[in-house]
Amino acid sequence: MQNRRVLSGMRPTGQLHLGNYHGALKNWTELQYQYECYFFIADWHALTTGYEDTARIEEYVWTMAIDWLAAGLNPGVATLFIQSKIPEHAELHLLLSMITPLGWLERVPTYKDQQAQMTDRDLGTYGFLGYPLLQSADILLYRPQYVPVGEDQVAHVEITREIARRFNHIYGRETAFETKVDKAIKSLGSRNGALYRTLRKEYQEKGDADALAKARSLVEANARLTVADRDRLLGYLEGAGISVLPEPEVLLTATPKVPGLDGRKMSKSYGNTIGLREDTDSVVRKLKTMQTDPARVRRTDPGDPDKCPVWDLHKIYSTAETREWVQTGCRSAGIGCLECKTPLIEKVVAEISAISHRAQEFEENPDLVRDIIAQGCERARDVARDTMDVVRQAMSMNYR
Ligand code: TRP
Ligand code: SF4
Q1: Which domains does the chain have, with CATH numbers?
Q2: Which strands make up the sheet holding 5-10, listed edge to edge?
Q3: Which residue stretches of 100-208 are H helix?
Q4: Measured between alpha carbons, how far is 223 from 165 in angstroms, rounded to an integer?
Q5: Phi, psi dihedral angles at 399 (to 5 degrees)
Q6: Which of 55, 130, 251, 368 is 20 to 30 Å from 152 at the Cα level?
Q7: 262-319 confidence digits (pLDDT tens)
Q8: What's the CA-to-centroid distance between 3 and ligand 2, angstroms?
Q9: Judging by DSSP bridges, how do beta strands 5-10 and 36-41 pair with one another?
Q10: Higher pLDDT residue, 176 or 267?
Q11: Nearest ligand, CA of residue 337?
C-alpha cells in the first residue's frame, strides 16, 4: 500500500442502488487496498437539503453503513466513520467560513442548478449555501492527496483547493521561515538539496509542472525529514509559506453509465432504481420490464443496442462473448429482448443476492456494525484532532 491518503463521503439518503454501487462504492472497495482510505457518512450534509425531516436520518446512516460493509468495504483496511461524530468538521467549517468570500459559494454551479431544480425544497438557507464549504472542511481535515468523486462533485473539490490555497496564503507564514527552509534543504543532503533548488527554480520561473511534481516526490520520498520540515519544503516550492492544508486532487472515478429502468440515469429521485439489497423476484420483474430500444416494437424489428439502456447494463455485467451475441442478435432481430436480458438478469441477481446475503449478517448483528463504525470514528478523530492542532497553531489560536 502506498502511504497516500484518500477521502470521500456519501450522503445517507436511504438504501443504495446499483447506480451508487457502480458509480462509487465499487471503486472505493478497490481503492481501499491501494491507499490509506477514509470514507464517511455525510449526515450533516443530508440536512442541507432536508432539514425538516430528520426522523429517518439515523435509520439511513445504519442502512448505509451496512450497504458499505456488504458491498465489500473492509474496516480492517479502510476507516469508516460518521461525519457528525467528529465535531472537528464543524470547527474547521466555522474557521474556513471566516475566510471564504460569499461570491465563491454563490458561483459554485450546483448552488443555482439545484435551487432551480429542487423547487419543492427550501434551499434558501445559510446551510445550503455553505454545502461546498462544509465539504471542504470534510476534506481538508484529513489532508488527503486524493478525493475520489464523480463528475458532479468536481466543482466542490475545486473550491476546496481554492480555500486551502487561501488559508495557506493567509496563515501559512512562519517566523524565520526562510532560515528553517535552508536548514531543511541541508538535511536533504547536498545532491538532493541542489536538485530541490533547481527544480523549484524551474517551477517558479517557468511554471514547469513536471519540475514541481519531481520536487514534490523528492521531498515526499525522503523518510528522514521531520513532518514540519516536509511541510516547509512543500510549502516553499509553491510560495513562501507552509502548506498547512495541502491541496487535494480529484481522483475522477471512471464510472460506467448506469441506466435506470426507464433509460434515464439511475437515480432515487427518478424512482427508476434497483436496490442493492432488493429481493430476487423484484429484481427479475424490474429487469424484465426494463425499457429497451424504443424503435424495436415487434420481435421481428431489428434493434440498435446503442439506443438501448439494457445494452449499457451489458457493458457493465457481460463478457465480451455475450456482448458480441447481443450485438449480432439485436441488430439482426435474431434474438428477442427478453432473451437478451436473460444472461444479464442472472448476473445482476447473483451480484445483488451476494450483497444481500452479507448485509443480512450485519442486520442480525447491529452491535457489530456499531463497533466497526465506533472504531472508525475513533481513528478518524485522531487525524482530525492533529489537523486542528496544526490549524489552530497556524492561526495563533492554540492558547489554552
Ligand atoms: N457532496 C458529496 C455528494 O453529494 C458528499 C460529500 C460530502 C463528500 N462531503 C464530502 C464527497 C467530502 C467527497 C468528500 O456526493
Ligand atoms: Fe436492447 Fe437487447 Fe432488445 Fe437489443 S435485443 S433492443 S440490446 S434489449
Answers
A1: 2-171+251-256+365-394 (3.40.50.620), 177-238 (no CATH), 277-363 (1.10.240.10)
A2: 79-82, 36-41, 5-10, 146-149, 249-252
A3: 102-106, 109-117, 126-129, 131-140, 154-171, 177-186, 190-206
A4: 26
A5: -75, 160
A6: 55
A7: 999 999 889 999 999 999 999 999 999 999 999 999 999 999 999 999 999 999 999 9
A8: 46
A9: parallel
A10: 267
A11: 2
CB 2 within 8 A of CB 50: no
Q: Which three cell numbers stand for residue 209?
A: 509542472
The whole-angstrom separation of Cα 396 and Cα 390 is 10
Query: What cell numbers appear for 86 in the block?
Result: 467528529
Taking the model in full, what pTM does it have? 0.86
Note the Cα 389 to chain centre separation in Å: 25
Task: Name the residue of 6, 10, 89 to mutate for ligand 1: max ligand atoms within 8 A of Cβ.
Answer: 10
Q: Would you place residue 1 in the very low, low, confident or very high pLDDT band (cuts 50, 70, 90)?
A: very low
Coil, strand, or helix at residue 325? helix
Pull the grid cell for residue 137. 472542511
Residues 6+ apart with CB under 8 A from 155: 108, 109, 110, 132
Q: Which residues contact 265 (CB under 8 A, 6 or more apart)?
A: 19, 257, 258, 259
* Amino acid identity, position 182: D
Name all residues whose Cβ lies below 6 A of ligand 1: 7-11, 42, 45, 135, 138-139, 147, 149, 153, 156
